[in-house]
Amino acid sequence: MPLEAGMYRGYIEYEGGYRIPIVWETIELSDLESVDAVVTFGIGGTLAPGYGDEYGGYTLVRVEVEVDWWPSSGPLFIGLIDHDVDPYTAYGVKVYGGSVRVTLYPPFSQYHYHTLVVGNLGDNTVSYSGHVQWQTAHKYEPASGKGG
Asked: Are 129 and 118 in contact (CB under 8 A)?
């Protein structure tokens, strides 16, 4: 499904000036395969306004993310990048309140390579911590944690 320019909602920056567009809606697929492997790992860090961290590197059926952040007044973006679709765009949700649990589904295909993005959409630096349960239809060795 090609993106229309009006669907873009903003950008997440990475060190070195690289940035990707983000979309706040999540697309859920109804014809998902059964889960063959579950990978669980911790996430955390400090994000300047407009910056994000990237985690994982798997195909997926779904991913569950629990995260706390402070100060809790600023919004976070939690989403997935499908690395087999050009241009790379993160699909996910904009969350508020300092603590959240979200479930994300692959935006295009569960057979594509995905990474998780946690981004700071607020005006102040935030610190965050949490964990991820990545459910995949294919068995993979765990990828190393944080990128960006």
From this structure: no
E strand intervals along the chain: 10-13, 19-23, 37-47, 52-58, 62-70, 76-82, 90-95, 99-104, 114-120, 126-136
Calculate the average pLDDT of the chain: 75
- Tell me the C-alpha to C-alpha distance, in Å, between residue 146 and each of 8, 66, 137, 143: 25, 16, 22, 9
pLDDT at 77: 92
Instruction: Evaluate whether 118 touches 41 at the Cβ level (below 8 Å).
Output: no
Q: What are the structural domains of the chain? A: 26-136 (2.60.120.380)
**Six-digit token pair at 21?**
């567009």
Higher-scoring residue by pLDDT: 122, 144: 122
CA distances, 54 to each of 43, 47, 73, 148 (Å): 10, 12, 22, 6
